[in-house]
Design brief:
single chain, 55 residues, 42% helix, elongated
Length: 55
């Protein structure tokens, strides 16, 4: 077994979310859509990884 396969599906993905709290109301839907797409891609590419979000 090579080194990469040895750790496959065993390293968790931890995502920390931080940022400005006073988001312009008109920008909020666009920002939410971008963040949603990022998480959707992560679920596809790392479908067997445990994911945790810290906010």
């Amino acid at each position: 077994m090579d080194d990469i396969n040895k750790f496959k599906n065993k390293i968790p993905i931890v995502i920390g979310v931080t940022g400005h709290r006073n988001i312009v109301k008109d920008d909020s839907p666009d920002i939410a859509e971008v963040v949603k797409k990022v998480f959707q891609r992560l679920k596809i590419y790392a479908k067997n990884q445990k994911m945790t979000m810290i906010r």
